[in-house]
Amino acid sequence: MQEITLSLPCVSRMVSVDVLESTQELAQELALQGCEPNTLVLAYEQTQGRDREGKPWPAARGGVYFTLVLYPAKTEQAEQSASAAAAWAVAQALKELFGFKTKTTSAGDVKVWNAKTKNWQKIAGVLCQSVVSLDGRICLLLGVGVHVNNRLPPASAAASVKKLLGREIDPEWVLQETLDIFWKKYTFSQQ
């Protein structure tokens, strides 16, 4: 585990691990220990990523996977609000950075239009869970996974930025833009 510096003004602490079982699990450990608000756990590969139903979610090398530990000011419907804000932020980031046509689902998925196959493909997912820290604070574990440079089979129902553009992209660029957009929407919802 290493601390890295990346220009993310709203992140108080970043823990970066190249390969991790699950950013959600490490973030939960940190939250239960009372970590500071806005701690970010970042990985570039997860070996045991999962979706909202607990099913395995492909999180192979090449993507950007993170969990943000939030202590919401408003706890009523906080999970739903944060999850929607994160999915919207990913969709907006992909639209702004690459001109992709995107949409979100109520399940927290982000889909992108693939003009070659003429269908919507999943490119990202959001998972938000509440936990109570040792000091009694409610915190949210906002997990996000985006297929950036992932190698996907040609017939895959999923997409990656690399698959759509035909070239690799710096995953931290996607992370930076997503968090910038997320903070604006999330901060507004907490007022």
Structure description:
There is one protein chain. The chain is of the alpha+beta class and 191 residues long. It has a single domain, classed as BirA Bifunctional Protein, domain 2 (2-Layer Sandwich), CATH 3.30.930.10. The protein has four helices and seven strands. The protein has a seven-stranded mixed sheet, sandwiched between helices. Strand 4 and strand 5 (109-114) form a beta hairpin. The radius of gyration is 16 Å and the shape is globular. The chain starts with 12 loop residues before the first strand and ends with a helix. Residues 1-5 have low confidence and may be disordered.
SSE inventory with pairings:
Elements: E1 13-20, H1 23-32, E2 39-46, E3 64-70, H2 78-98, E4 102-104, E5 109-114, E6 119-132, E7 138-146, H3 161-165, H4 171-189
Parallel strand pairs: 1-2
Antiparallel strand pairs: 2-3, 3-7, 4-5, 5-6, 6-7
